[in-house]
Amino acid sequence: MPSPVMGESEDIPGLGQYDDFQTIDWQRDLARDRMRHRYIVKHKKDSVWDFIKAAHDAWSGWMCLFLVGLVAGTVASIVDIGTTWMTDLKYGICPGAFWLDREQCCWSSNQTAFGLDNCSQWLTWPRLVGVTDESAGGYIIAYISYVLWALSFASLAAILVRMFAPYASGGAIPEIKTILSGFIIRGFLGKWTLLVKSIGIMLSAAAGLSLGKEGPMVHITVCIGNILSYLFPKYGRNEAKKREILSAAAASGVSVAFGAPIGGVLFSLEEVSYYFPMKTLWRSFFCALIAAFVVRSIDPYGNEHSVLFYVEYSKPWIFFELLPFILLGAIGGLIGTVFIRANIWWSRYRKQSRIGQYPVTEVFVVTLINAVVSYPNPYTRMSSTRLIYLLFSQCGVANTDYLCDYNRNYTNVNGAIESAAAGTGVYTALALLFLALAFKIVMTIFTIGIKVPAGLYIPSLCMGAIVGRIVGIAMEQWAYHYPQFWAFRGECSTGDDCITPGLYAMVGAAAVLGGVTRMTVALVVIMFELTGGVRYIVPLMAAAMASKWVGDAFGKDGIYDAHIALNGYPFLDNKEEFDCTTIAADVMQPRGKAPLTVLTQDSMTLREVVSILENTKHNAFPVVISRESHFLVGCVLRRDLLLAIGSVRRKQDDISDDSLVIFNGALQGNASASSPVKLRRILDLAPITVTDHTPMETVIDMFRKLGLRHVLVTHNGRLLGIMTKKDVMLHMSHHQRTIPSVFH
């Protein structure tokens, strides 16, 4: 454990903080917080001011997360409203009030019927120039307008990211997982990233690219949590404690993106968080609740349910349908595996080729291809969220889409929907959906990774919903044409429509998203919160498990872990198992007869210490009794040593290069006229140590569960070497490469 004195050294500015691209010391930061808390509790009865400080300390976490939820809900609502307006701008404008989207424009004119196509207040671009939509000229004008608006939105998003916030691109979930595991990436959660990400995700989603705004929404809320944590020094000055706020903020991101507060908490627990104590679970729930309440109050979806894809049906499913649900899960696992491998291959190629040097050009080309190819197909022309909602929906009287072109006679609007044969429109829709599926898979592979804000939740849900709807229509027609088949005999013999294709779309969406991310529990909860379909938990669970099993058979990593490995982030997954026979002596540095860089407790001059700092890049230095006797005394961090030496030189005039540096013990006769440099306060007298024969399985568990930066390796108390997190990760990577997999 760190030295207690270390937590009291507030007179050295910057002590206890970290440089960019460094791993935090969880044990030291948590120990500092415990000492600070004990001091506050001990003195809270000394005065009224101390009592107020103690009360503020107790409530600061809840207050911080209340503010995070409040701001997150507001920002998410603005993003949703802005995205809808920009998306509709590709098709037309409301001349009387240009700031209104299509639906609001028609509602403002009291034309609240279902047929928004007949709204006189909303003018498409062809009608604005005096051409009818049905004419060839009207189609060409609409086509060109769609492409130009898409190029404008996407290019502007790419330029904003390139000029002001490079970290604002992508979905950022892999980076957030790495940050929550204890890695420092300065600027990744800053105010410029927040601003550009919020504007950029509206632009890129409105451009019609095959991406979603839900992953970036998690990044946005974590940025909000990081910025607001600095209002509370308990969290702003302690990186380990700050990650409690960031974990809760991640939960609010899913809450506002999908209207799924419970799913958000489980997402943070299952997918992104590294350190998740019970109090963080409660606070995550509270933060997600506040954020969901704000979104519900603003109601950006306009459906009064505060969820994205609310479904109206609640027809029970047949037991036999578990088989196609499991089949959909298997298909989702296969699609997820293909997508992960293709996207990682393209991302690696992008990094290694000249394509990565022209990010704005790449965005322009991808958007141009996407817009030109997607417009002729109505299912790729519409936004992905509208397509998912259409695929989830049940056919009724008001549905005029090809998907609902059944040979039905609606004699009773409020009665049960009878089963019927599919009309020609349904088969046309199926052909278009097959084309849309192929297009979505290909374009998503090339889109995820370009330099605009981009999430993969909505594209994954969209691909799965298409597959599910196709399977659902096939099952529906099977039940119609063969109602006496043993599986349908009871439920489908009444003439009512016993198969719900929209349910298959919902299950398929969960299956593909599970295949891509490898989530299970959080995925099921998000899906039933997303749709309001609580009755369908079992089908969703069956599909999620089948998807994960099939996906894991071809590779354990989901898309986030695959991108972490691709980018080389120092992330040790505490959920994975590692089996090896090596010991600490095989991995520690230095190896062989190479010298070990150490500091002595009381016999080195300041010149010698500074020389070691200048000639090495190590982040930590063991302190031993003497050069002859390598018995371990403690450990000191490079950054703390630099700060302490700089502070001593500023405060003491009688310090020279010949001054002795005293880390521990008393001064034994000083031949130099200069005063000694006493640095006991920065010495960790209880560093984590292992013996040279400690199994690496145990060492890896220590790094994972204690969040260590390094351990010292000893033999009978004598220092032999040091092992850093980087050494452990390189060893694990080398070990996994040398073991052949049965599936590869």
In short:
The chain has helices at 26-43, 48-89, 102-108, 125-128, 136-164, 173-180, 191-206, 214-229, 233-236, 239-258, 261-272, 278-298, 322-352, 359-374, 378-381, 384-392, 424-447, 457-481, 501-517, 521-531, 537-553, 559-567, 584-587, 606-615, 638-651, 696-706, 725-738, and strands spanning 92-93, 123-124, 599-600, 604-605, 620-624, 632-637, 660-662, 677-678, 689-691, 710-715, 718-724.
What is the C-alpha radius of gyration, as a whole number of Å? 30 Å
Structural class computed from helices and strand pairing = mainly alpha
Q: Classify the helix fraction into a percent range.
A: 55-70%
| Largest β-sheet summary | 3 strands, mixed
Instruction: Estimate the global geometry from the Cα principal axes.
Output: elongated
How many β strands by DSSP?
A: 11
Q: End-to-end span in angstroms?
A: 43 Å
Average pLDDT, all residues: 85
Assembly form of the protein: single chain
Low-confidence stretches: 1-10, 739-744
Strand order of the largest sheet: 3-5-6
* Discrete helix count: 27
Q: Percent of residues in beta strands?
A: 5-15%
